[in-house]
Structure formats: structure tokens, C-alpha cells
Design goal:
about 250 residues, Gyrase A, domain 2, 2,3-Dihydroxybiphenyl 1,2-Dioxygenase, domain 1, 2 domains, 5-stranded antiparallel beta sheet, 4-stranded mixed beta sheet, 13 strands, 4-alpha-hydroxytetrahydrobiopterin dehydratase activity, lyase, PCD_sf, Putative pterin-4-alpha-carbinolamine dehydratase, Glyas_Bleomycin-R_OHBP_Dase
């Protein structure tokens, strides 16, 4: 199914929803967990009928929904087709039904409250450093280029924000303006670090492991693989630490 243009999405006039990034988002305000569950259950039934479902996040007083198609078709300037993640007509169809369900249940949307966070790195070496970041963020390089024609890092389960790469001219390694903390269970920290190194990353500092280990890509961009253990506690898969709180750094 063809990906929709911004104009096509706006023409649908679905006031509960907002197009952010690649997806279509809505936040509904609910009076307690039970009301949220009832909304999600009804949305699930509607999705079963249409053969399409939203991604759902529930919290205290809200239900967040994201609609996106993993099989949207994008045609480049040469007419070649690419399968990408984007909004399609089936997302609009389900959004219409969800809007009706919310109205029937007396639940109000707060479209101004929806937010999506993405991270970007300026680099002249996107193809080289992308596997490192895919491994750091998701544990493997499979997330690189998923649902896009570029090198973006997109986790299939939505555990982490999208990371994309802004192409720049060749330059000396600058001082990094930000870094990411990737919090993982202690028992997988070593495998996550190993995956990043196998993809081309470098261990810059492991003196505070397993609390945190600093990894850098080939451009010198740094991230920390973090756990709640302090530097002097071993990470053992079959043992739960007696003090499972994070260590201040």
C-alpha cells in the first residue's frame, strides 16, 4: 500500500491524531487504569476486524497510540519501489474507528500532548558507524536500515528512539555535544558491549563496569552501557542484587 503524503493525511481531518516522524499518534486521557484497558480492548477488536493494530503505551491517566504500516511503498525519483515504515490508508481507516470508539466511551484526546524523540549524529561515515549504534541500542545490527531507505536505527519493538545520521563533510573529530546512556539488565551488558565492538566500536573506559562502560564509534561519538550495579558488584545472570537501584554518576 502506498505511503501517504502529508497533504493526504491532513485531508483526512482526524483531529485526535498528529503525524510525528514516520507515524500517526494520539493520546487519550483516561480516568484510571480500568478505563484505559477498556479503551485498548475495544481498539484491539477494531484492529482485529481491519487486520491492523496500533502500538500502545499506557500510563497513569493516559493511553498513547501509534499507527504505522511496516509495508508502505515509497517510490524514488527513478520510479523504483522501496518498502518503508510510514502512514498508509489502513492507518487512517483504523484511526477513524479509534476516534469513534473513544467518542462512544466519552474519552477525550489531547493531541497537543503527543511527542516523539529522535536522536541524530552528524557524520561523514554513516555506513561505517551505523552498525555500532545499532548494536549498542538493540543488541544486533539488524535494526540498521529497518523500515527506511537510509541507515537509520529503528528497533522493531520500539524500545529505543530512532537514531539517524546527518550527512556532513569530512572533518576532524569534534567534541561530542551529547551521549546516550543505554540501560540494560546486568546479565546482558557484556553481550551488548561485545556486539558493539564486533560492529566496529571501541571500549574507551571499562574501569567502572558493570556500573557503566564507555563505548565509542569510529567517529569518536560515545555512549555508556549502564546497569544498576556498582563498579564492585559482579553481574551474574542467576542472581538478583540486594540493592537494585542505579548508581549516581
Amino acid at each position: 500500500m502506498d505511503m501517504l503524503t502529508t497533504e493526504q493525511i491532513e485531508a483526512a481531518d482526524l483531529k485526535d491524531w498528529r503525524k510525528l516522524g514516520q507515524g500517526f499518534h494520539a493520546r487519550y486521557v483516561v480516568d484510571g487504569f480500568g478505563e484505559g484497558v477498556r479503551l485498548v480492548a475495544a481498539v484491539g477488536q477494531a484492529g482485529d476486524v481491519l487486520g491492523h493494530h496500533p502500538r500502545v503505551t499506557m500510563g497513569d491517566g493516559f493511553v498513547d497510540l501509534k499507527l504505522i504500516s511496516e509495508d508502505a511503498v515509497y517510490r524514488d525519483g527513478d520510479g523504483r519501489e522501496h518498502v518503508v515504515e510510514w502512514v498508509t490508508e489502513k492507518d487512517l481507516e483504523l484511526a477513524r474507528r479509534i476516534t469513534e470508539i473513544a467518542a462512544e466511551q466519552g474519552i477525550v484526546a489531547t493531541p497537543s500532548a503527543v511527542t516523539v524523540v529522535e536522536f541524530a549524529i552528524d557524520t561523514a561515515h554513516a555506513a561505517a558507524i551505523a552498525p555500532v549504534w545499532a548494536a549498542l541500542l538493540t543488541g544486533s545490527t539488524e535494526a540498521q536500515g529497518r523500515g527506511t531507505i537510509g541507515t537509520d536505527i529503528r528497533d522493531a519493538t520500539g524500545r529505543v528512539p530512532i537514531l539517524w545520521f546527518q550527512e556532513t563533510d569530512e572533518h576532524e573529530t569534534p567534541r561530542q555535544r551529547f551521549h546516550l546512556d543505554i540501560w540494560v539488565p546486568p546479565e546482558i551488558a557484556e553481550s551488548r558491549i561485545a556486539a558493539a565492538v564486533a560492529a566496529g566500536g571501541i571500549v574507551v573506559d571499562d574501569s567502572q563496569a558493570p556500573s557503566f562502560t564507555v563505548i565509542a564509534d569510529q567517529d569518536g561519538n560515545k555512549a555508556c552501557v549502564c546497569t544498576y550495579l556498582s563498579a564492585d558488584e559482579p553481574a551474574t545472570p542467576d542472581e538478583t542484587p540486594e540493592t537494585p537501584w542505579s548508581v549516581d554518576r
